[in-house]
Specification:
With 288 residues, this protein is of the alpha+beta class. It has two domains: 113 residues, Arc Repressor Mutant, subunit A (Orthogonal Bundle), CATH 1.10.10.2910; 130 residues, 2-Layer Sandwich (Beta-Lactamase), CATH 3.30.450. It is built from eleven helices and ten strands. The strands form three sheets. The protein has a five-stranded antiparallel sheet. The chain is globular and about 65 Å long.
């Protein structure tokens, strides 16, 4: 199957309809049972989240790392379910927490797992009712028993505001999830770009305390950004993985037009060039 995000999300929602969650947090045991699986905690390597196999009796065994916290275990179970439903072979050549050079199949399974843990039908209304800020994302992560990364990514994707959730590693942007309105506004954050030097995110990564949202400069975050708009930035850093999570959002309900759009718009009114006092005829040549 195609492993683009839309196809994966559709597949996940079809799966949820078969065994849909009735309460929060969703039951990962129910998801496992839907594929004929059982969950066991095992002693695994530190960077190994889970592994699974089909036993001689046809039972699907999902072994999760007993040393990991419950939220990570829940995501790992959903990730293993995704491998079965999507029929994607496992590729654990890179750590699961890292977005750098992560195989496409593993990313697809991550998308599927996030859909299972944060079902659109239950999650979207809560996003619509939430205030902007990492505090809201953290509260939703608690309610759904999901990670900040998966909750923040889906928060931005489902938000009706102009916002983006950015994941950086080693001081460089690895992934960003943007709301539909921000994508429509063509506000682009380039993967691989360094955290802005004097940004809230860079300061938090350097050891400053996370004090909540601060004003930010849009042109430092968004490529070729030429709009006069107020941007806010909230950030947290996790030194264990040198990973920085950033939520960006615009105060404005609509982004103002760019100077080039303003110039173009001022020249034409209802399809006709705006009168500027200079007649366009007869031109330099005289009619004979």
């Amino acid at each position: 199957m195609t492993v683009d995000d839309v196809s994966v999300a559709i597949k996940a929602r079809e799966f949820i309809r078969l065994c849909g969650p009735q309460a929060l947090p969703v039951s990962v045991d129910t998801y496992a049972a839907q594929i004929g699986g059982v969950i066991k905690e095992e002693v695994l390597d530190e960077n190994e989240d889970a592994w699974s196999f089909r036993d001689p009796n046809g039972k699907y065994r999902i072994c999760v790392n007993c040393a990991h916290n419950p939220r990570r275990q829940r995501f790992s179970v959903c990730h293993e379910v995704a491998h079965v439903v999507l029929d994607v072979p496992a590729d654990h050549s890179h750590p699961s927490w890292s977005y750098a050079r992560r195989p496409a199949g593993e990313v697809a399974c991550d998308v599927f797992a996030a859909e299972l843990l944060l079902p659109h039908r239950l999650f979207k209304p809560r996003v619509d009712a939430a205030d902007m800020g990492l505090a809201s994302i953290s509260a939703l992560a608690e309610e759904f028993e999901a990670s900040l990364v998966s909750t923040g990514s889906r928060f931005a994707a489902f938000s009706s505001e102009l916002c983006a959730f950015v994941i950086s590693e080693g001081g460089k942007v690895r992934y960003s999830s943007r709301s539909t309105r921000l994508r429509d506004a063509k506000a682009w954050i380039r993967p691989g770009s360094a955290l802005p030097v004097d940004s809230n995110s860079a300061r938090v990564r350097a050891g400053a305390p996370a004090t909540g949202p601060e004003d930010a400069e849009p042109e430092q975050w968004f490529e070729d950004f030429d709009r006069d708009a107020s941007l806010y930035e909230d950030a947290r850093h996790f030194a264990q993985w040198d990973q920085t999570l950033t939520l960006l959002w615009f105060e404005d309900h609509e982004l103002p037009i760019t100077p080039s759009e303003r110039k173009q718009g001022s020249q034409w009114i209802n399809g006709l060039r705006e009168l500027d006092g200079v007649l366009p005829w007869p031109g330099r040549k005289r009619r004979r």
